[in-house]
Amino acid sequence: MAMYFTVDLDGLARHAHYLPRLEHTRTCAEVALAIEEYREDLDRPRARRAIPH
Question: Could you give the CA distance from residue 41 to residue 3 in angstroms, rounded to a whole number?
Answer without folding.
Answer: 37
